[in-house]
Amino acid sequence: AQSVTQLGSHVSVSEGALVLLRCNYSSSVPPYLFWYVQYPNQGLQLLLKYTSAATLVKGINGFEAEFKKSETSFHLTKPSAHMSDAAEYFCAVSSMDSNYQLIWGAGTKLIIKP
Amino acid sequence: KAGVTQTPRYLIKTRGQQVTLSCSPISGHRSVSWYQQTPGQGLQFLFEYFSETQRNKGNFPGRFSGRQFSNSRSEMNVSTLELGDSALYLCASSLAVAGLAGELFFGEGSRLTVL
Q1: B interface test, pick of A4, A44, A45 with most B CB neighbours within 10 Å
Q2: How far is A1 from chain B, CA to nearest CA, in Å?
Q3: Closest-CA residue in chain B for A92?
Q4: Cα(B9)–Cα(A103) distance, rounded to whole angstroms?
Q5: Residue B103: predicted pLDDT
Q6: pLDDT tens-digit readout, B28-39
Q7: Where would I find the H helices in chain B?
Q8: Residues of A whose CB is below 8 A from B107
Q9: A32-38 and A56-58 beta bridge pairing
Q10: Do A91 and A76 contact (CB within 8 A), yes or no?
């Protein structure tokens, strides 16, 4: 069965520092991978997606993620954190394995220190 | 282009009652997915409807049900409410099947409090 693991329920970084949010997945077939962001009191919004094209994917707000098949990872990064990046981030995977149902990670709350 | 609309935004019910939540997807979207979000359990998948047919179902008791109408609008119903059903219920729509579509568009949610 497919699964997604997000390491760290909370990650704290200083403004201007590198943001790294980790996501590992399990899938026996090529997956589609997604990162979503949820700001307080709002629904989720797509940040970026991997759908078997380029392994380095660029998203909105300066975020990017790299698909590494050998490590079954899809970590999210941003070179320089901004206060407005404070939110909860969700990684998700889908494939034929799950009948293309999205399988979600538990989420990581990103805290930005001034 | 109007986004995903969920009604009502907030509601309070008592144990044993039932509730119906509504979701209007973006025009042209054929898939509607429902999620339950709580601080303890995170984001839990309830079900997905595509062209009026339930495609996938999460691991929830039969008290949770849903349907989709021919205009793609969807409703979910929870009967015999329990305290643990207090949560934010999110609806998301997409052009194609959720896991293939590439992007889900979420509403702002319906916050249910069960007393």
Answers
A1: A44
A2: 14
A3: B99
A4: 26
A5: 86
A6: 999 999 999 998
A7: 98-101
A8: 43
A9: unpaired
A10: yes
User: Whole-angstrom Cα distance, residue A51 to residue A49?
Assistant: 6
Contact A101 B102 (CB under 8 A): no
Q: What is the pLDDT of residues A40-91, one digit of tens each?
A: 888 899 999 998 778 899 999 999 999 999 999 999 999 999 999 999 999 9
Residues B98 and A94 sit within 8 Å (Cβ to Cβ)? yes
Please name the member of B43, B107, B108 whose beta carbon is closest to the beta carbon of A107: B43
Q: How far is CA A101 from CA A40, B95, B97, in A?
A: 25, 14, 8
Helical (H) or strand (E) element with A58:
strand A56-58
Amino acid at A109: K
Chain A residues whose CB is inside 8 A of the B109 CB are 43
Do residues A108 and A6 lie in contact, with contact meaning Cβ atoms separated by under 8 Å?
Answer: yes
Separation of alpha carbons A37 and A8, rounded Å: 15
User: Whole-angstrom Cα distance, residue A103 to residue B56?
Assistant: 12
Beta carbons within 8 Å of A2's beta carbon, 6+ residues apart: A25, A26, A27, A31, A93, A94, A95, A97, A98, A103
Query: CA dihedral defined by B18, B24, B4, B94, rounded to 10 degrees?
Result: 110
Residue B90 corresponds to which tokens in the numbers above?
Answer: 């999110």
